[in-house]
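Support reply, case 0932

Customer input (verbatim):
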Amino acid sequence: MRTCRAATAGKLTVVLATLVLTLTACGGGPSPRAWAASVCEALTPWRAEINKLTSSTQQQMTAQTTPAQAKENLVRLFGGAEQASETARRKVDEAGVPETDHGEEISQGFQASLGKVRDAYGRARGTIGGLGTGEPTAFYDGVRAAVDTLNKEYDASALDTSRLSSEELKKAFDEVPECR
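Our regenerated output:
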């Protein structure tokens, strides 16, 4: 009798586990608050890194270095910003799809914005990497043009949580401590 009960209990455990997994899968992704917290946790270090890199880039533009040194430093800085943006994009992807109306669209919008920022930094890195350093004036004019383009592309892809189509997410972004 014990063997039969043990086998039945084992089967019941498997059925319950399957039911719980199925219900969890049907329930969708994280709550709006949990998703907003995950997104802000992904974006906080990214913003800090971008601010640090922006400051370093501005210092590099006014530093007394050779064009070759400036080129090396700027390529490294923009490569770091490109990588930081990809890391943030990947973490937003890993946050899943929020359980809210248009959750998939919203998640994809965040990822697309970060992808555009990543690509803008990558293009700036590539442009500066392709500049010649023999003529300082031409080099720095090229750097300014690359940075101007980067700024325009960056502004065009900015994350704007005020345009979210979910009131639940707007509220979550305003309330969760990770977003303050």
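We compared this against your earlier run and they match. Two observations from our side: The helical segments are 2-27, 32-62, 67-94, 103-129, 136-156, 167-175. The radius of gyration is 24 Å. Please reopen the case if you see a mismatch on your end.
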